Amino acid sequence: MSYGFRVWDAAGNLEVDTSTRMGIVLGSVDVNTRTGSITDNRLLGGSPWSCITTGYLSTEFSFQNAVTGYPIITFSGNMMFWDYTDATYVATVAITYGIH
């Protein structure tokens, strides 16, 4: 069988080939509301994933101390939803999302 793309590690183990599922970053959204959603038709092209990051690096603000819970991220069809239901404070975060 011929392959178009294969990658091995230093020990000779196959790491990646044309059947490997790799993630694709579709976008990022800044969130500062208790609940919300976005629509992105590209979410229909695979299994969605998300990653939450914060831009607060100041010693005067601690994201972990200010928020008792992170936003819950869910997906349905071509939509991504966030919900800070368990949070006592809504800090601005970035949600990076994509498909694999």
Topology:
Layout: E1 6-8, E2 14-17, E3 24-31, E4 35-39, E5 48-53, H1 63-66, E6 72-76, E7 79-83, E8 93-99
Antiparallel strand pairs: 1-2, 3-8, 4-7, 5-8, 6-7
Radius of gyration from the CA trace?
A: 18 Å
Low-confidence stretches: 57-61
Number of domains: 1
Strand fraction band?
A: 35-45%
The total count of helices amounts to: 1
* Main sheet properties: 3 strands, antiparallel
> Can you list the strand order of the major beta sheet?
3-8-5
Q: Sum up the overall morphology in one term.
A: elongated
Number of strands: 8
Backbone structural class: mainly beta
Q: Could you report the average pLDDT, rounded to the nearest whole number?
A: 83
Helix content: under 10%
Instruction: Give the end-to-end Cα distance, rounded to a whole number of Å.
Output: 25 Å
Q: Strand-and-helix sequence, N→C?
A: EEEEEHEEE
Short recap of the structure:
With 100 residues, this protein is mainly beta.
Key features?
100 residues
How would you characterize the overall build of this protein?
With 100 residues, the chain is mainly beta. The protein has one domain (21-99). Helix content is 4%, strand content 43%. The protein is built from 1 helix and 8 strands. The chain has one helix at residues 63-66, and strands at 6-8, 14-17, 24-31, 35-39, 48-53, 72-76, 79-83, 93-99. The strands form 3 sheets. A 3-stranded antiparallel sheet has the order 3-8-5, with no helix packed on it. A 3-stranded antiparallel sheet has the order 4-7-6, with no helix packed on it. A two-stranded antiparallel sheet has the order 1-2. The longest helix is centred in the middle third of the chain and has 4 residues, at 63-66. The radius of gyration is 18 Å and the shape is elongated. The chain starts with 5 loop residues before the first strand and ends with a strand. Mean pLDDT is 83; it is low at 57-61.
